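pasting for the record
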Amino acid sequence: MVCCIGALWPWSPPLGVGAVDVRDVAMAHCLAAVLPNASGRYLLNSESTFIMPTAAKILQRAYPRRWLPPLKPPLWSLVVFGPMMGLPVDVSKATFRKKPLICTDKAAKDLGITSYIPIKQSVLDMAADMLAKGMIPWCKVPVAWPVLMIDVVLILMFFYGLGRLFGLC
């Protein structure tokens, strides 16, 4: 979720992830510590989704003057530019337009967790908290396009330099 306002912003690639509110995770930790039948690892999942486009849509509806409409990059642009922004190529390829299937049966059986805070509520609560703490700028600045253009120029310069080095230019 931090990527929505971090390195990939305002890109919102459709990368599938399992999402769960941190408050649900905290509850699971507390239950696992006190319930005698709890052991091992537990998977929690409120919803398998494309978290960045989903969060962007939620935030755009809730705060129309603060959030840019999401830019939906194709896979090739994630493969080329993603590593420059901290997104490994193998992660892009493995999760692009694919939602994971996550079985939470063990958490339901051992911990009794059968319902989770919805993604919409989680995103809105987080945004409200970040706004209250001044962690989100008051204006929306479309930083992705200039950054991408600089990246393209740098890549072209790199290949031009390689061509000159090997006598291809």
